[in-house]
């Protein structure tokens, strides 16, 4: 299992002076290309899924494949929700398997950004999930990201960054120092001096959105001044598109599989180039030694009921599945009846938590307490409850 705690991964990178690639994916070709590139370089990697790309894929359907691929990989992997639109987006992302989240409130006034981000942090930290915040605004200049990130660049100030991190409690900060989403027009002018002062003031992993189009020297300067996570998509998309156009030129009558043949390899090549440039190649073993594995917890209850008939027990379970399944950090709620009629306990709950931290946040969540006090405990006095972590 190579799915690891994302904060541990980025803290290692920050302490050792390199950056981890957070590569946005929009299809299985991207998933394969990104992981193949990371494995060839023996590098940690972040699989990033941006809510602004959800029109290209069904988030709920693709996430099981992303999670399975991450757990199968032989390098450290984290799964990140990028540019989430709301608190509900972050909750859904964690439920589906993300172990890092970013909800972008950077377009809001400073106070609103702080307060809204704090809500995300309180929820996510209760699930053991680190949070990326953004201060300043990284606009889109060319390509599809220009439509998703309209407006002008707003630079991050050192003073506001310090206050924002202290009050919001974010684990990582995305800063605006001159990059843009999408393709650059002309030579990018980065305010490295500003970045250095932010890094000195904060001392936490910094994030750059809009990595496409920067020079090797600019990437080096970013990393030397605290950038630890680099979001990267447009160049991967362009590499895949070039391969598809070449396939079409070579055989105008080819079908879908002929058109996309080699797209994953083209993505892999660009991923490898970035990983080697950003200094994360060869770091996998060290990160695996220090980063905690990302482990789910199974909250198991076996019980008997008193004073409730079969229909009432089924209704009790149905209400519980609906109610408890919405609590942050809960990934799945299973309810069942014993097959053997002489079983010591006749019924069960198996509630899957995203992380051990959810044990406490779930126990104290008002929806859980209300359901347990009103529906469950009055009829299920004879019960055993145990939390299990994966021994594999």
UniProtKB/TrEMBL annotation:
Record GO cellular component, one term: cytosol
Q: Annotated Gene Ontology MF terms?
A: tagatose-bisphosphate aldolase activity; zinc ion binding
Positions of the Stress-response A/B barrel domain? 297-388
What Pfam families does this protein's entry cite?
Dabb, F_bP_aldolase
Instruction: Give the domain of life.
Output: Bacteria
GO process terms (BP):
carbohydrate metabolic process
The record's section on PROSITE patterns has:
S_R_A_B_BARREL
Record's protein name: Fructose/tagatose bisphosphate aldolase
Annotated organism of origin:
Thiohalobacter thiocyanaticus
């Amino acid at each position: 299992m190579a799915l690891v705690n994302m904060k541990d991964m980025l803290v290692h990178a920050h302490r050792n002076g390199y950056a981890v690639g957070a590569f946005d994916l929009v299809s299985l070709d991207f998933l394969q290309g990104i992981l193949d590139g990371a494995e060839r370089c023996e590098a940690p990697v972040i699989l990033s899924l941006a809510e602004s790309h959800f029109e290209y894929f069904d988030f709920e359907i693709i996430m099981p494949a992303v999670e399975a691929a991450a757990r199968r990989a032989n390098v450290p992997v984290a799964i990140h929700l990028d540019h989430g639109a709301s608190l509900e987006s972050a909750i859904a992302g964690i439920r589906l398997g993300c172990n890092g989240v970013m909800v972008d409130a950077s377009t809001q006034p400073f106070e609103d950004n702080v307060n809204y981000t704090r809500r995300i942090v309180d929820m996510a930290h209760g699930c053991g999930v680190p949070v990326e915040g953004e201060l300043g605004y990284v606009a889109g200049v060319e390509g599809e990201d220009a439509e998703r990130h309209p407006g002008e660049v707003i630079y991050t100030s050192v003073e506001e960054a310090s206050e924002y991190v202290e009050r919001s409690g974010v684990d990582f900060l995305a800063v605006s120092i001159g990059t843009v989403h999408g393709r650059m027009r002309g030579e990018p002018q980065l305010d490295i001096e500003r970045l250095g002062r932010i890094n000195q003031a904060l001392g936490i992993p910094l994030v750059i959105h809009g990595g496409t189009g920067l020079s090797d020297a600019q990437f080096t300067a970013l990393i030397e001044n605290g950038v630890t996570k680099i979001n990267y998509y447009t160049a991967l998309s362009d590499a895949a598109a070039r391969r598809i156009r070449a396939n079409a030129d070579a055989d105008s009558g080819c079908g879908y599989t002929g058109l996309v043949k080699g797209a994953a390899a083209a993505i892999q090549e660009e991923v490898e180039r970035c990983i080697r440039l950003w200094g994360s190649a060869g770091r996998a073993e060290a990160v695996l030694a220090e980063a905690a594995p990302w482990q789910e917890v199974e909250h198991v209850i076996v019980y008997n009921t008193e004073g409730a008939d079969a229909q009432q027990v089924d209704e009790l379970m149905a209400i519980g599945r609906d109610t408890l399944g919405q609590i942050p950090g809960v990934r799945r709620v299973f309810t069942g009846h014993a097959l053997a009629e002489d079983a010591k306990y006749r019924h069960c709950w198996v509630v899957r938590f995203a992380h051990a931290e959810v044990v406490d946040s779930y126990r104290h969540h008002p929806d859980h307490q209300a359901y347990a006090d009103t529906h469950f405990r009055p009829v299920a006095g004879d019960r055993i409850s145990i939390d299990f972590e994966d021994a594999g």
